[in-house]
């Protein structure tokens, strides 16, 4: 689904922060992306989401070469990839329901087409009774689950989660991990960027370890 070949990334004229990355994200796979703070995990997530272009190398997403794809085609490809950001990026003037429904509204769907799906998904992530409140009222864990629901509402082929348990307590972290595992069983490929060792120990999954900008993979 996603393929990197000898990918490098630098910002401006600085040194490469990611070097010679070669790997694939297979269909219906589950993997952790880990490594020390500053290793480049968030930058790699941004490359996977196509919000950054590599300095060199080949990236193919759903068999499309990103170096030659037209800019106007990127939004259509991005809709196949859900992403959960570290800072949630919920809109404070919209309710939980409206935040989760937003990706569907943006592509022109009528509420009658998606209302039941949004409600069912909010119940699935444990926010069925919080759908009509604004984000400032939500706890950190509730905001995290709302962000996850928003990433899932388009039924993406790939889900990218950047430190999804970084702002929650251990019991909620385990609950969120179970959500990701269940989603993977339903057919979505999952990439979780984390430095939480206890999280890694709970799932027998592929580990992609970034150290000093280089990637080692342990299946």
Question: What can you tell me about this protein's structure?
Answer:
The chain has 219 residues and is of the alpha/beta class. Helix content is 32%, strand content 26%. The protein contains 7 helices and 10 strands. The protein has helices at residues 41-48, 74-78, 96-106, 111-124, 140-152, 170-185, 197-200, and strands at 2-10, 16-25, 30-34, 56-61, 64-65, 81-84, 158-162, 189-193, 206-211, 214-218. Strands 6-7-8-3-9-10 form a 6-stranded mixed β-sheet, sandwiched between helices. A hairpin with a 2-residue loop joins β9 and β10 (214-218). α3 (96-106) runs parallel beside α5 (140-152).
Which properties best describe this structure?
single chain; 219 residues; alpha/beta; six-stranded mixed sheet; four-stranded antiparallel sheet; 7 helices; 10 strands
What's the overall geometry? Answer: globular
Backbone structural class: alpha/beta
The number of distinct β-strands equals 10
Q: Which percent bin holds the helix content?
A: 25-40%
The largest pleated sheet is described as: 6 strands, mixed
* Percentage of β-strand residues: 25-35%
**SSE order in H/E notation?**
EEEHEEHEHHHEHEHEE
Number of helices: 7
Computed Rg: 17 Å
How far is the N terminus from the C terminus? 18 Å
Mean pLDDT: 91
Low-confidence stretches: none
Largest beta sheet: strand ordering: 6-7-8-3-9-10
Strand and helix map with partners:
Blueprint: E1 2-10, E2 16-25, E3 30-34, H1 41-48, E4 56-61, E5 64-65, H2 74-78, E6 81-84, H3 96-106, H4 111-124, H5 140-152, E7 158-162, H6 170-185, E8 189-193, H7 197-200, E9 206-211, E10 214-218
Parallel strand pairs: 3-8, 3-9, 6-7, 7-8
Antiparallel strand pairs: 1-2, 1-4, 4-5, 9-10
